[in-house]
Amino acid sequence: MIEADKRKAIYLLDQEGMTGREISRRLGTSRNTVEGIIQQKGAMPVHERKKQCIDEDLLRRLYDECDGYAQRVHEKLTEEEGVQVTYPTLTRMLRSAGISKPALSRCDRMPDKPGAEMQHDTTVYRVMLGEKKVKLVASILYLRYSKRRYLKFYRVFNRFKMKCCLHEALMFWGYAAGKCIIDNTNLARLRGTGSNAVIVPEMKAFAKQYGFEFQCHEIGHANRKAGEERSFWTTETNFLPGRTFESLEDINRQAFEWATVRMAHRPQAKTGLITAKAFEHERGYLVKLPSHLPAPYRGHERGTDQYGYVAFAGNYYWVPGTKRDDIKVLEYSDRLMLYKARECLAKYPLPADGVKNAQFSPEGLPEPRHKANNRKKPTRQEEARLRAMGESVNGYLDFALKPKGIERHGFVRKLFALSRKLTGALFIASIERAHKYRITDMATIERIAALSITQGIGSVPFMEIDEDFRQRDAYLEGRLTDAPDLSIYDDIAEDDHE
Question: Which of 72, 409, 422, 461 could form a disulfide with 426 if both were Cys (CB 3.0 to 4.6 A apart)?
Fold first, then answer.
């Protein structure tokens, strides 16, 4: 668009009698433009801004779905509703409709230098996974200058998980800053605070592998990690609202795409800085990591059961071969490795979140010959057979298994074994008496059964002899043996009396 001063000059030259061709040559403007400006008498054209209108009910619905966060509303309008509107226009619409939040005051800024530092922190969110609301720990590693983030969610977060998160983030970036600012958390701090903090030797050695060191910020210095706290605010206002998550794996997949792709190419609101371009500049100031660094792990001692399985985190992993006694289980962030001495016997990927009581065997090897029964409910069949004996036994089991302190599987197994020793009538009679006197001690129930036999209430089961066995020579010989002649002892007895 031609500036106002130039427009005025073109009109004045025309009024002085200069031709359009000459004006065009002198001012370097096309003849058509000159003629148009002369017709407008040198005035600036007035363009009426087209007023964009979005249904207020739609804005309110999206505002509620996104928990009142305008940035997330803007994304859903563009991606899901197909409405093209600028973010400033959207905020004006929200304010005019009276459905916006008051602006928050900004804290003081800390100077940013390329490659100077990165920051790490965690916070807890309650998130819907499927149809269940669960507590998850969000862990964010944040580069101060380029604003690059690495976000991951965990069920629980401890020192081992912290090392896994930092390893994954730094190996993904390929670079690390010289220091990592953390709060005064016991995950990495042994004692002291701020500049006097002593880092746990294990974490100090871990950081040294990646070329950085941990540093705790001073207590009360709220602005020291303002960028990191802003990352959590952005996660809360821009990532979580308006999204659905089916599992822990699903939320981490979406978090990775959001933090590393979408946010990396979105300009900063105040500065216009684009994270991806800033990171390219910052690379020259960061510590370049080796192409390979060993992933963190922790070891566990486990013994194998009679079927050749080791138990770990609620699941069972088969150990092939014959070297099964004591097994060393190495736990990584994504896999398990089973060792005997220095020999690796098997490798397993970690099962999906929530998988419990499952049995696994290595891929590419024959299936184990024997598989254990259901470990979580090993007496399910025994209990079903007991309950099928009648209402008396069924009612007693409901009574006996109701207390939380009872060892359910052991009790059912012993009771089922007793039922195999007694006749059905004797067992039911014993159970009825035990229920009457509210007895759950197995030894006492066995005494009740013995007392019932003496009282004639029942008897031990008569063992039928197989007819084929009756015809065996040994059986017939035993039945037909003559009584022994004891008269030979009479003379001996008389001699003793003499």
Answer: 422
Give pLDDT tens digits for 458-477. Answer: 544 445 566 666 666 665 65
Q: Where are the beta strands (DSSP E) in 324-427?
A: 326-331, 335-340, 343-349, 359-360
pTM exceeds cut of 0.90: no
Amino acid at the residue 471: Q
The domain segmentation of the chain, as residue ranges, is: 4-39, 56-96, 118-288, 298-360, 382-498
pLDDT range class, residue 254, cuts 50, 70, 90: very high
CATH ID of 118-288, from 2.60.40.10, 3.90.79.10, 3.90.1440.10, 3.30.420.10: 3.30.420.10
Tell me which residue of 310, 290, 314 sits closest to 300, measured CA to CA: 310
Of the given ranges (37-46, 256-265, 476-485), which has the lowest mean pLDDT? 476-485
How many whole angstroms separate alpha carbon 6 and alpha carbon 13? 11
Q: Tell me the C-alpha to C-alpha distance, in Å, between residue 314 and each of 15, 22, 381.
A: 93, 90, 22
Residues 66, 243: contact at Cβ < 8 Å? no
Q: Residue 422: how many CB atoms within 10 A of its CB?
A: 21
Task: Collapse the DSSP code of 490 into the 3-class scheme (helix H, G, I; strand E, B; otherwise coil) and give the result.
Answer: helix
Residue in the structure block whose two tokens are 């017709």: 39
Alpha-carbon gap, residue 114 to 125, rounded angstroms? 31
